[in-house]
Design brief:
Order of helices and strands: EEEHEHHEEHHEEHHHH
Distance between the termini: 15 Å
Helix content: 25-40%
Strand order of the largest sheet: 3-2-1-4-8-7
Length: 289
């Protein structure tokens, strides 16, 4: 059986340039129940502040969901970056490679990595620049993303850096954060689920929305009324607020409540399609069984 957690934290992440970001939202739900709560910063969160919270103030019995990709596709080609002799063997080595190449990029940005002469061959970038090994079409996918499609989700490749679905930027800046936290917090399933201490998992907020009765095309909620209807489906108390709200906040609030509801489901910690090789290289999206 999976371990019991007391706090459930969901973080809607951002790969945007700059020091602080209104698009980063953090919410917490408690195991005893009640409504999920936003943890706010007036000017918006910086990525460094999120690291400080996770490393220095996070209660030990916390499950943290990060809305970003913790790995790149690997199983399809047997490597993250085929034909590059520095292609790393596993996810922690990938995080280290990204961080080392971006050491001079401020605020955990990752511009230097996507501009790297070898790495850039694998990304779809602005200005119609598509790397030779991006894969065409929607690009390369991890096994977890192929499984997401079976749930009705519409994932994008972590090698995509263009448009509203530029999940690659969130993933790359997130990898720098994961590297900074290495040794302090376990990241499942790259690391085995520990008996004690906080745990990070990858989340995809659309999965929480689907569980709350919404469709993939209606996953984004922009009012407290919509949010509270979805929370009710999950058996959560409502947030005491009315009117419009940004979808980053609603994503975090709903997903914190969803993590609380499903974290005890043993099948989510042992996905049928997740091999040990996939776990250590590509990682997995929690909620995909």
């Amino acid at each position: 059986m999976p371990r019991a957690f007391e706090y459930f934290v969901a973080i809607d992440w951002s790969g945007a340039q700059g020091a602080s970001h209104k698009a980063i939202a953090m919410a917490v739900a408690h195991a005893r129940g009640g409504a999920p709560v936003l943890v706010e910063r007036e000017r918006g969160w910086s990525r460094e502040e999120v690291i400080a919270v996770l490393r220095d103030t996070l209660p030990a019995n916390s499950l943290v969901g990060l809305d970003l990709g913790i790995g790149f596709p690997h199983a399809d080609c047997g490597a993250y970056f085929p034909d590059w002799n520095e292609s790393p063997p596993d996810a922690p080595s990938l995080w280290s490679l990204v961080d080392a190449n971006c050491a001079d990029d401020p605020h955990l940005a990752a511009t230097s990595f996507v501009d790297h002469p070898q790495a850039s061959r694998h990304f779809r970038r602005h200005g119609g620049r598509e790397g030779a090994t991006f894969g065409g079409g929607q690009g390369r996918f991890r096994v977890a993303e192929e499984e997401q499609r079976k749930l009705g989700c519409k994932p994008y490749s972590n090698f995509n850096l263009v448009g509203a679905a530029q999940v690659g930027k969130s993933s790359l800046t997130g990898m720098r954060m994961l590297h900074a936290l290495r040794g302090d917090i376990s990241v499942w399933p790259v690391d085995p689920l520990p008996r004690t201490g906080p745990v990070i998992v990858e989340i995809y907020t659309t999965i929480a929305a689907l569980a709350a009765g919404r469709s993939a095309s209606r996953a984004k909620m922009r009012s407290y009324e919509e949010l509270n209807d979805a929370l009710a489906v999950l058996g959560s108390a409502p947030v005491v607020a009315k009117g419009p709200v940004d979808d980053h906040s609603t994503d975090a609030l709903l997903t914190a409540a969803w993590l609380r509801k499903v974290a005890g489901d043993a099948s989510l910690w042992s996905p049928a399609a997740m091999t040990s090789e996939i776990a250590r290289t590509e990682g997995w999206t929690f909620g995909v069984s």
